[in-house]
Amino acid sequence: MNKKKLTCIAATSVLLMCCAAPTIAFLTKQTETDNVITFGNVKLQLHETTLDQNKKEVPFDENTQADITHTDRLSRIVRVENVGSQPIYLRVELSMSGTDKNGTPFEADDYVSYQLNEDDWTYNDEDGWYYYKTELAPDITSEELMTEVIFTNINEITSKYPGSEFKLNIDAQGVQCKNNGENVTEAEGWPETE
User: Fold this and answer.
1) I need a labelling partner for 80 at 20 to 30 A (CA). Which of 13, 14, 99, 136 fits?
2) By the 8 A CB rule, do 154 and 160 touch?
3) In this structure, are residues 133 and 120 in contact, taking their beta carbons and an 8 Å threshold?
4) Is the dihedral of CA 175, 181, 185, 188 positive or negative?
5) CA distances, 28 to each of 20, 36, 38, 135, 154 (Å)
């Protein structure tokens, strides 16, 4: 076989390999999710705001500290935006963590409740998540899940944990609507949590 023919076969082989590589990469990107197939992408952006002294809604600054000895309610507004390309079902988990003045963590969920929007969100007792009742289209922000944190026993907090700090933890998750049930309660493929 002459060198010219060998070079032509080698060049053709390399060209075929380059064309096949994207197909191989696409076919090997698989995730097992209990037979739920998704297309496009799911991307969320959490929006946390608060009301300032003039009752104007402003972005929440996580470095802000509030003295709860004078009030049992703090403004905290939570919404989620769908920044992906597909309609999604949405859920959010809220939890409160506490740290005493020595830096020791303590269970804080028993000391708070939330002013919730029950018209647009529903709570699932079995898994502890709040589910948005309707699908959320791309580039749309949900109705607020909550508007306030309510401290339920200020006297016990100040006597048992003087100088303590509380932090609201928010976990938001979404799954694609397409081919995934008729509503949020039928949706599958939620990320597993501990």
Assistant:
1) 99
2) no
3) yes
4) negative
5) 12, 17, 15, 30, 55
Q: 130, 137 in Cβ contact below 8 A?
A: no
Q: Apex CA 71: angle with CA 123 and CA 60, to 5°?
A: 60
Q: How many CB atoms lie within 10 A of CB 95?
A: 14
The whole-angstrom separation of Cα 75 and Cα 147 is 6
pTM comes to 0.75
Q: How far apart are CA 125 and CA 105, in angstroms?
A: 25
The segment with the largest mean pLDDT, out of 11-25, 106-120, 177-191, is 106-120
Q: Which two tokens stand for residue 106?
A: 């303590």
Instruction: Provide the pLDDT for residue 194.
Output: 59
CB 169 within 8 A of CB 96: yes
β-bridge partners, 41: none
Q: Is residue 149 a contact partner of residue 98, using CB atoms and an 8 Å limit?
A: no
Residues sharing a CB contact under 8 Å with residue 191, sequence separation 6 or more, in sequence order = 173
The tokens describing 3, both together, are 């060198």
| Ramachandran angles phi, psi of 136, nearest 5° | -110, 115
Structure tokens of 136?
Answer: 């959320």
